[in-house]
Structure formats: structure tokens, C-alpha cells
Amino acid sequence: MAQYNFEGDFANLNARQLDYINKVILEQDIKVKKVVFEQLGQAGDNFMGSLKRINIEGENGTISMILKIASSNEITRQTYHTGLMFKNEHIMYTEVLPKFVQLQKDAGVPPEEWLKFATCYGSFNEEPNEVILLEDLNDLNFSMMDKFKSLPDEYVRNVLKTFAVFHSLSFVMKKQDPETYNAFRNELRDQWACIAESDQSLMFMGNIEKDLTSIIEDNTYKSLLKNKMTDGFKLRKLNNLEKDMNYTVIQHGDAWTNNFMFRVVDDAIQSCMVDFQASNDNSPMSDVLFMIIICTDHETRSQNFYDWIDYYHTELDKSLSHFGLEANEVYPRDRLDADLKKYAKALLAICLLITNVSLRDSKEASVVIENMNNMEHEDDVMESFKPESLEEETVARINKKIGGFIESYKKFGLF
């Protein structure tokens, strides 16, 4: 690998990937002298693919990039739809997000209100060699919140504002350029609905559900959770077949805590979405309700839920106003309320799956990731999902989180 002048942790990259990365690095106008790869974050920060930071030193400056690498394990790729997910993210960073910001620029939206996302330096979408090179948001003082804690009210509101802007641009694009929007809609695929298209995937989810339910201590909760995951993913597929495309948007699709980064500028919170692998055309409430349920606790939701929904719709209207549109025209409040209930059951299945993985500590998560990367059969990962592998603190976190889901669903009439 000497021809690349690379240093550090890049042994798991193949020649095709290294060639592409080298090409992207050489395109940067800094007269590169040194390139160092290092592992990024802790186990459990990210589960779909490997993350590295690339530190690039040049005569004319330095650049830090975040490198996302797809798994090359054939069983892993089939089980977790790796090709589909990296293709989604490729489309989002190279086509959809730039188009959305161009809509804002053309309408004269102030720069401080433009949709924020990491600059994409390059995306290689050749299976099974996918890599994406992104701007390092840490350099802009963005950071992640603690995934084990509920997001505070002001952070939730900021994410809702980000969603409102993001979703509004789908409605704008439908009006201004429906042909391109429909092309995006057809290219992006819903990874969650894909689970219901395979009997093997549903069986896999059924086994996860069984193991997850076994650690739930409250018998009432245990009973309520029966078949919620497998039925939920089937319902997700059905909802997609029945959706009214007048009221859908390109959604983020995987709005858990680690997929947002935050910074404070002049006492104001700013948020930036990351990881668009689950993006697809769906109801705005699939993003909004998912984020509220997975990123907050029951106590915080109980105090703020209806105010949050009102706030989202108000911010949607504000963003649309730049384009001469109104929220009550493109996404009426009664439709929003109906979608909350329509999509809630399917979203609970996704929240249960995410919780079973995301609330593990770094040691437990590293076992899951190691098994995912070296799968010879689905059973290899199922062993790491067994409750016997969890620490008491993890079991307690999962019980509290899922108990909160159930109490919130009952309180807000979402079951």
C-alpha cells in the first residue's frame, strides 16, 4: 500500500476502495503530504458498516474526513440489506440533499436557514465495495448527545425544526419538479419494509422479539409486546402499499439519537442529520413520531408531546412560506393527526429493534458488531442477542425504555 502513502488503520479496506479513496483525497487542493486512518467512535455508535476518520495533511492545509465502509460479508449484506442502504445514502448525499438546498437558494431563503448536512467528498456505490467520504462535523463543533439519556425539550424542538425544513422541501419539489421527485421516490427503498418481504427476515425478527421479551420484567408489558415486532414490520409494508403519495416526503428514516449531531452557536442550538441509509418516501410522521419515541423518555413525552406536534406543524408552515405554500394546504393538521395513529404500530416495531441494539454498552455492542462482520449464518448474530450476554445495567435500561414506550402509547392512544 506504499503507493498511497497511507498510514494507520486501513487494513480492512480492499484495493478498489483504496483506489477510490486515494482519488478523492488527491482531488483536494491541499498538495497532500500525509494521510492517516483511525477508527472512529466506540462500538455501538454505529452498527451498519465501519466508520473511520481520515486525517489529511497537505502543504496548503489539513482536512479531516469521515469514511463509511460497507461490510463485504455476503451473509451480513443479505441479512441487513447492506447494498440497499448504501445506495440510499449515496442517492441522498449526491442527488437529493444538494437538490433540496438548491431549491432554498433559488427561493432566496437566508443561508442560516438552509438545510445542514455534511459535505460529501465522494461516494463509491459499487457492490460490495461501497464507501462514502464525508465532512467531519466535529471540525465544525458538532457532537453527539448521550444515547442513554432522553433528549431535552430544546434539543427535540430543534430536531423537529430540522425535520420541518427537510420535509417541506419534498412538498416544494413535488410542486416545482415532480418528475425529479418521482425519480428520487422510486430509487429510494424502505429498508424496514424489506424485512417483511422475506420469510427468513421475519423469522429472524421473531427470534429477536422472543429474546427481547424474555428480559421484560413486567408481565403486562410482556403480554402487550407479543408479536409486536413481526406484525409491525408486516404493517410497515402494508402501509407503504396504501400510502397517499400526496402526503409523503423523503424522510430520514432512522431518527435515533446517534443520527443527529448538535452544536450551540450564539446560545442557539443547531442540529444536523447524519446517516441517510434508511431514507425513503414515507409519511412525515414516520420521522417525527419515531424520533420522539426513541430519543426521549416517557416523562419528557408526557409533558411535551402535543406541544411538539404543534411546533413541528408550525415550523413546517414557516419553511413552506418561503415558497408560497402553506402547511394546511400540503399537509393539513387533520391528516397529520391521522398519520400519527396510522404509522405508530409499525414504528413501535422499529423502536423495539433499535432499543435492543442501541442500549447495549460498548463491550456488548462490540460482540454484536464482530459477529455481524464475520457471519457465516444468521445464528452467529442471534447468539450475541441472547439475554444471557447482557449486563444487569443493560437489562434495566431496556426495561425502562420499553416500559416508557408502552406507557406513552397508552397515554397518547397510539396502540
List the helices and strands and how they pair.
Layout: E1 6-8, H1 15-26, E2 32-39, E3 50-58, E4 61-69, H2 74-80, H3 82-106, E5 120-124, E6 131-135, H4 153-176, H5 178-187, H6 191-194, H7 199-214, H8 219-224, H9 228-242, E7 249-251, E8 260-265, E9 268-273, E10 280-282, H10 284-295, H11 298-321, H12 327-330, H13 333-358, H14 362-373, H15 379-385, H16 392-411
Parallel strand pairs: 1-2
Antiparallel strand pairs: 2-3, 3-4, 4-6, 5-6, 7-10, 8-9
Helix pairs in contact: 4-5, 4-10, 4-11, 7-9, 9-13, 10-13, 11-16, 13-16, 14-15
Structural notes for this entry:
With 415 residues, this protein is of the alpha+beta class. It has one domain. It contains 16 helices and ten strands. Helix 4 crosses helix 5, helix 4 packs parallel to helix 11 and helix 13 packs antiparallel against helix 16. The longest helix is centred in the C-terminal third of the chain and has 26 residues. The N and C termini lie far apart (56 Å). The mean pLDDT is 94.
Report a brief summary of the structure.
It holds the Pfam family EcKL. 54% of the residues lie in helices and 14% in strands.
Quickly list its features:
415 residues; 6-stranded mixed sheet; 10 strands; EcKL; Kinase-like_dom_sf; CHK_kinase-like; CHK kinase-like domain-containing protein
> Order of strands across the widest beta sheet?
1-2-3-4-6-5
Given the structure, what is the number of helices? 16
Helix content: 40-55%
The oligomeric state of the chains shown is single chain
Categorize the overall geometry: globular
Q: For the residues shown, what is the average pLDDT?
A: 94
Structural class given helices, strands, pairing?
Answer: alpha+beta
List the secondary-structure elements in sequence, H or E.
Answer: EHEEEHHEEHHHHHHEEEEHHHHHHH
What is the radius of gyration computed over CA atoms, rounded to a whole number of angstroms? 21 Å
Largest beta sheet, briefly? 6 strands, mixed
Distance between the termini: 56 Å
Name the beta content range: 5-15%
Number of E strands: 10
Low-pLDDT residue spans = none
Number of domains: 1
Organism: Heliothis virescens
Pfam families: EcKL
Protein name: CHK kinase-like domain-containing protein
InterPro entries: CHK_kinase-like (IPR015897), EcKL (IPR004119), Kinase-like_dom_sf (IPR011009)
